[in-house]
Amino acid sequence: MSFVLECLIAVAIIAILWWYINVTSIRNKLSWVFKIPGVPLLGNGLQFVGSNTEHFNTMFKLLKMSNEIKSVRLDFIHKTAILTADPKLIEFTLSSNSLKILNKGEVYRFITPWLGTGLLTSDGKKWKPRRKIITPTFHFKILEQFVDVFESKGKIFIDELSKETKNNGFDVYPYVTMCTLDIICESAMGVSINAQKQKHSDYVTSVKNMCRIVVERSFSPFQMFDALFYFTNNYKTQKESLSILHTYTNNVIKQKRKELEASDKKFIDIEDDFGVKKKMAFLDWLLQTTIDNKPLSDKDIREEVDTFMFEGHDTTASAISFAMYLLANNPKEQAKVYEEAKSMFGDDKEKSATFKDLQEMKYLENVIKETLRLYPSVPIYSRCLTDDIEYQEGKIIPKGTQLGIFAFGVGRDKDYYKDPEKFMPSRFDSMDGKTPFSYIPFSAGPRNCIGQKFAMLEMKSTLSKLIRNYELLPSVPEHKLILVPETVLKSKNGIKIRIQNRK
């Protein structure tokens, strides 16, 4: 045996021993969490092999094994994870300001080729100053400016749906996602991509490709490893799609920066008040923002604009689509939404909703909240600990642990919601707030969804306009959803309903 081969074997043995000692240490510290039985080496990996349509059922079954604990430990070849639907552990995790627990989980690295280390994917050290910069862009005086964008894109949406009025059942999601992509692009960058009219443009196709690839990498034992992913067709598609997406955003940034320099505008300091004289897209704000009197680089700006694009279209599209399905299948609740709209707008289907109008749509807001309880756009949140942290006395969550927060599960827990499988928007009129972390469709704590107010206004605007123009009806034959946890919650067989014109 050659010296080189002996060295390689020695290095391999040392690496295996280091891995074994590290994994054993983590698992010993997590002895207080109910352990799901697995197989040697593979752990619980085989329980998640197969169609992702079974993942929710698998998670519910595993959590049920823990009885009242609502948390289980899952072991895999290269990591150990806690899956939890326990509001106490969720509150501890999401409300913490500690850098040890602010980092997102491993799965988020699959989106970094597109988003870089923007607000969604950045670690705690980078995230905190970025959050401070971006928070003012969601002040109500800024949000009020986007109502016109919601209205104009919503009108196109209503027009596009008109071709389906004689259909016994059609998938609403493709229509909704193009509408929300139109809205977010104009709100984020101040430019129109006409996604609803040009569904097959290179930009729209590239967005779809990247969302699909992130999902496939998350569940593929082969593609989750970068060294193996490079040999797949998805890697080639990703490379081409990223070139299109980044080139488009970079060109818009350059053009906007030239316009800013030509106008000789003063940079905005993030501590200034929120006086706004003209409509500003998210990008416009970032171009005029400084940190320590220095403007953000083009790369910094692109990361945040792309993050806003990614987070702001599919999540909202998911919520609107599921709300349409629930209203179609619950005519009494739909009638209440229509009566609320009629009390505000009369029989005028075309009248634009103002910012004040949207704020006063209280029942529609309950409908959206109840939709998100049953169908949270992001069904699972993930955190990764960068150091040991004490959860409760004698209970340590060790460095390297992946924490999976099962928002979908906790929202359907009978301990917190009466008749949890029923669609009852009125329940939000009497919520006592005793367990706030049992309702987390926008996450919670420091890393909650920064755009939730924007999203709520967008959803209200779109759904209100929809209900004023169309009556939503169940598809024929009856359509049953097949839920899948992708980048956002979706239905594998579509979200099908019927529509007919309001008389």
Account of the 3D structure:
The structure is a single chain. The chain contains 18 helices and 15 strands. It is of the alpha+beta class and 503 residues long. It has a single domain (31-501), classed as Cytochrome p450. The protein has a five-stranded mixed beta sheet, sandwiched between helices. A hairpin with a 4-residue loop joins β2 and β3. α11 (233-263) crosses α13 (298-328). The longest helix has 31 residues, at 233-263. The termini are far apart.
Q: What is the number of domains?
A: 1
Name given to the CATH homologous superfamily: Cytochrome P450
Q: What share of residues are in beta strands?
A: 5-15%
Mean pLDDT, to the nearest integer, reads: 88
Quick one: CATH class? Mainly Alpha
CATH architecture call? Orthogonal Bundle
Q: Report the sheet with the most strands, covering strand number, pairing sense and barrel closure.
A: 5 strands, mixed
Percentage of residues in helical conformation = 40-55%
How far apart the termini lie comes to 87 Å
Look at the helices and sheets and give the structural class.
alpha+beta
What's the total number of strands?
Answer: 15
Number of helices: 18
CATH topology: Cytochrome p450
Strand order of the largest sheet: 1-2-3-11-8
**What is the 3D form?**
globular
Q: Specify Rg, calculated over alpha carbons.
A: 24 Å
What key phrases describe this protein's structure?
single chain; 503 residues; alpha+beta; Cytochrome p450; 5-stranded mixed beta sheet; 3-stranded antiparallel beta sheet; 15 strands
